[in-house]
Amino acid sequence: MTGIRRLAQHLDISIGTVSRALNGRPDVNEETRRRVLQAATELGYVPNQSGRSLRQGTTNIIGFMMQTGTEITGQGDTFFMSVFDGIQTVFARHRLDLVALLCSSSEDPDDYLKRVVARGFADGLILSATQRHDPRFEFLAKRKIPFVTLGRSLTDVGQPWLDLDFEGMAQISIDRLVARGHRRIAVTRPHDDVNLGHLFVDQSARALAGHGLALDPELIFSSLPNEAGGYQVARQLLAMTDRPTAILLVNETIAIGFYRGLSEAGVKPGRDIAIIGRQSPQSHFLSPSLTGFTLSRRDLGIALAEALLATMPAFSHLYPDADPRKVWSEDLIEGESDAHTLPA
Amino acid sequence: MTGIRRLAQHLDISIGTVSRALNGRPDVNEETRRRVLQAATELGYVPNQSGRSLRQGTTNIIGFMMQTGTEITGQGDTFFMSVFDGIQTVFARHRLDLVALLCSSSEDPDDYLKRVVARGFADGLILSATQRHDPRFEFLAKRKIPFVTLGRSLTDVGQPWLDLDFEGMAQISIDRLVARGHRRIAVTRPHDDVNLGHLFVDQSARALAGHGLALDPELIFSSLPNEAGGYQVARQLLAMTDRPTAILLVNETIAIGFYRGLSEAGVKPGRDIAIIGRQSPQSHFLSPSLTGFTLSRRDLGIALAEALLATMPAFSHLYPDADPRKVWSEDLIEGESDAHTLPA
DNA sequence: CTGACCACCGTAAACGTTTACGGTACTATG
DNA sequence: CATAGTACCGTAAACGTTTACGGTGGTCAG
């Protein structure tokens, strides 16, 4: 005798009543419910998830899909850890288990997702590393699997998304640098077809145009979104005959490598070149200090979780006014790296 | 009509036969098996995991438990990503799904593990961030849940483990530095009760003793295992009146912060102080280049996976000679950071 | 007193598998 | 021809839940 049956036998009531009592159904005497609950903790009863899943067709699992290898995630991975933390706190409230689904860099993300879905693994998914055209969205929409994405995409199937305000960052950065006299301003972007690259570069160009300036195509640097990428960008930039006087770094981690590349050539941030980037736990150890954007990754995670729950029928009533699509502005932390000013 | 029943009806055979055919049982005609397999792909049939789990009492899931926050994992998290990658490749061969269970830094790892186990989540577990005394081991052993740990512990319940050869690294480093004339050699260790700290410091002391030297307790620096920790160590070290002439860095990530702290004071690695650390993707961007240990994290992951499978009854026959307990030696990559030599 | 209503509870089916058991038809052996 | 053996397949139980449905006993209004 195991499971709910054991509990029922012990209390000398039926398993139906036990189940109802545990699941908070109204049609059960409060006194019996109390007894059931007590016996459950006493006997250490915990419902079998397989039985429950089989019956209800739901797994109580939410998957957060990421990709291994910093070359792909590009945020130094600690970014996602913090976001994950925020998501976890929300789901824990609803007894939903959050797991990380790490797609190996050697596997196609689309195939990986198909496997996960075919297995009926999760009730909902959170997708990151969204591509500019992302076939995963259509796939999930067709299967009617609730999901939310971290990052916008041109592929729109009506799913909720959250994203960082890359346009805003570009605009603020450009305005700031132009005001300091810069005319030749470089920007970086990830090497692959991830959407944020387009958003960032395009808005940088528009912002420059607003000042009557153009974005020189030569000054758009594609890089791996990690330290190595930043280093490469520095080398390329230093090798140019007509160097830019300022640069925008779109990724969090590349500043480390970029600084290194500069210092090898004796070029000092804030004195010889102006830099605006993104803050990270690592960037605090850069010198001169980095001027860069920052936000609470944990809050972002919380918002992601709530956006997903809002689309899941079983929970949507709890989050009636969750923002289905929102851009998160980052705050600019002023450092020394963009102090470089040109004469008017 | 759904699932296996639909398939059976479509083929006009019984569900039992279908199941046997799909699961590779011997007592089914090869011709019918072929037909079943073909129909399965045609109709896109994929067995329901809940039904299967309920019947077999197994989930086909392996969990890799880590902790969020670099303050805890200490390896810059990219370490675990690579290990994860290796594990994944092995499990994929056996149709086991690997998920990452990320314990939030705000939750007690023991409680988290209990929740996971109570839910019957996984058939096996891989534990990281092993403490010197780790109650999780006894808990899992009592429940007879197969698990393997990345990292040794004083708590021994007979579980398999893999670990890095911290003793070997300490020995080699000390020998090397002593040969270069160093007498006052500092070591770092994580601030908490994680086992590797003890292994590393103790062996360093023994190695020094082998040369007739003692490890000055003042030269044992506890630090957070991240960039900030390395920076703090540098500050403390520089503030000492009787500075060490060499130092061993036990973590991968702290070199970044340590270098920064030194450079602020104009102290140059390899010229003013000798440093031996651990290589990481980030450390390649340090200058002067870091002398440090390295190993294939992916191979480590593969070995971890095989060690776990060897303890699982359903798979143990496939890995008869998997090493249940093994220390992985790292290779020393010679850089410039330990060039500093003292006169005899 | 009768009927309706209500609060609570028990019964049993259903979810989709796997697998022990037994049955059938055919082959080989004496 | 009788028997044993074999190859293959169908039947049905079991895994642990949830939940629709119906039943029981009580209360209360008419």
TrEMBL record, chains A, B:
It comes from the Bacteria. CDD domains: HTH_LacI, PBP1_AglR-like. InterPro entries: HTH_LacI, LacI/GalR-like_sensor, Lambda_DNA-bd_dom_sf, Peripla_BP_I. GO terms for molecular function: DNA-binding transcription factor activity; transcription cis-regulatory region binding. Residues 2-56 form the HTH lacI-type domain. Keywords: DNA-binding, Transcription, Transcription regulation. Pfam families: LacI (PF00356), Peripla_BP_3 (PF13377). This is LacI family transcriptional regulator. It comes from Pararhizobium antarcticum.
